[in-house]
Amino acid sequence: MKKSFVKTLAFGLVSTLILSACGAETSSTSEASSSSQTKETQASSEVVSSASVYEYTNPTELQETYDIVIVGAGGAGMAAALSAKDAGMNPVIFEKAPVAGGNTMKSSGGMNASETKFQEELGIEDSNELFFEDTLTGGKGTNNQELLHYLVDNSASAIDWLDSMGITLNNISYSGGASVKRIHRPADGSSVGTYLVDGLIRNITEQSIPLFVNSEVTKINETDGKVSGVEIIIEGETKTITSDAVVVTTGGYGSNHEMIESFRPDLKGYVSTTAASSTGDGIKMIEQLGGATVDMDQIQVHPTVVQDSGMLISETVRGEGAILVNQQGERFVNELETRDNVSAAETALPEQYAYLIFDNELAKRAKQVEYYESEGATIKADTIEELAQQIDIDPATLKATLDTWNNNVKEQKDPEFGRETAMDYDLTTGPFYAIKIAPGIHHTMGGVQINVDTQVLKEDGSVIPGLYAAGEVTGGIHGQNRIGGNAVADIMVFGRQAGVQAAKYANN
Ligand SMILES: Cc1cc2nc3c(=O)[nH]c(=O)nc-3n(C[C@H](O)[C@H](O)[C@H](O)COP(=O)(O)OP(=O)(O)OC[C@H]3O[C@@H](n4cnc5c(N)ncnc54)[C@H](O)[C@@H]3O)c2cc1C
User: Does 339 qualify as catalytic in the annotation?
Assistant: First the structure.
């Protein structure tokens, strides 16, 4: 298929700054450790990636009919398109943003998978059962267990499938909530999102799968009780596209403040780390067809987000030993508690914000700090006392807090808050840093209900014929708390499955 370049630069893209997420294979990792992702968190900024240099399909090539319509070109959508194409179908992807990638582009920590060939090569002992148990514990026992079994049982084959397409995630590390090294990243330990999205688009292009950007799907059509295509707006015109099946992969609703507030009034006014296009469109369109939703109030809040930019400060900074202090210059929480608990402790402060405090040695270990500094997020001073003055904290109190903390590190005991991890390094080497943070919305765990075949379900458990969904648009898999690395696993495993199942349906 002939393609022509869609000028994405007209939408104000800025150049990508890709820093390594975590260097050493042995290092612990966490989500959003790449500065390239955090750059994109402002609602006003556009998605930034080398994905912008790909050629998208020219609108003049739009046809009226395809076998399968895929709504949204994030990880789940592109995985669905590739597996549908493998099954002999003629799929199309419609993407409302000027470039493909969605939130997937922002993901940096990696993709969880168990019993993989790469784990075996590195001598890491893992099992699908352990992966299941870790995820269920993380989700506070509320995960949809059928979906979860499918996720873990098919995670290794998703890694192999990606590898077969030249997307090799063979650098494995720890992530929060995992008992063993399970989070898979590109060989150099760099950000998973840009690597994954670039690899997927490369395959989409090689397979001549039409991918239209600036193409918003506004409605899913139904004829005689079966899904029959979609309405799209492309180049300012509304068009009806017919298809045998529709796969909805529109991502979450982390940037739709109205939806967030309606399900979680307590999150009113929270900044979001998610892509501006995460507006819950798919959920709304599916609800119009009678599709059921689940866990809509389960919204993951991340405790270290710069409020004016929405920039996520990676858990790596706390993982490397940073502490959190309140405006009085005192610690108030075990900084390595789960995201929900640390966020709650910040919200309970009268000022509802806190400062991450760390030293120059930590800044050297956590490469992301360079980026935070370049973006003006850090406050820096040669001594603790000078730092305290800059952030309007009593210098003697902050000094005493640091002294106590450094003694805790020495003794390997935190009598006040019981912190037991990330106590390998003290904070004694100037210059010293502060970053002002507060909680921000990070991931929406609720969404439409699906079964293991990714068919969309109604309240009574019946399916909507021809309608499939995968990725962050769906709910139930993560329960009340998603563990880091499981969203990328989710989009790859279920995105792939959606393509297979939609193809089976369309073939009948
Ligand atoms: C900063 C950050 C870091 C993260 N790091 C990690 C990590 O390391 N590991 C991990 O597992 N998870 C991580 N996550 C979560 C993970 O990235 C997402 O949950 C996942 O990528 C969602 O993928 P998706 O394909 O479902 O949706 P998306 O990737 O968001 O794609 C959805 C696409 O649909 C498009 N769309 C929406 N509505 C329409 C419409 N009406 N018409 C056409 N197109 C539409 C959107 O523009 C978008 O491109 C992170 C999230 C954030 C915000």
Answer: yes
Please pick, among 339, 365, 419, 496, the residue that the annotation labels catalytic: 339
Separation between Cα atoms, residue 428 and residue 431, nearest integer Å: 9
From the candidate CATH numbers 3.40.50.1980, 3.90.700.10, 3.10.105.10, 2.60.40.150, the one assigned to the domain spanning 301-441: 3.90.700.10
* Ligand 1 probe mutation, 107, 477, 481, most atoms within 8 A of CB: 107
C-alpha pair distances (Å), 460 with each of 245, 253, 293, 454: 21, 24, 12, 16
CATH 3.50.50.60 matches 39-108+184-254+445-471+492-507: yes
CB of 102 closer than 6 A to ligand 1? Answer: yes
Distance CA 411, CA 406 (A): 9
Q: Give per-10-residue mean pLDDT for the chain (508 aa).
A: 32 27 30 34 32 81 98 98 98 97 89 98 97 95 98 98 98 83 87 93 97 98 97 97 98 97 93 95 98 97 92 82 97 88 93 97 85 94 98 98 98 95 92 97 97 98 98 97 93 98 96
Residue nearest ligand 1's atom 24 by CA: 251
Which is the closest atom of ligand 1 to the Cα of 215?
Answer: 43
Q: Which two tokens mark 458?
A: 């109604």
Taking the CA of residue 489 as reference, the ligand 1 atom at the shortest distance is 11
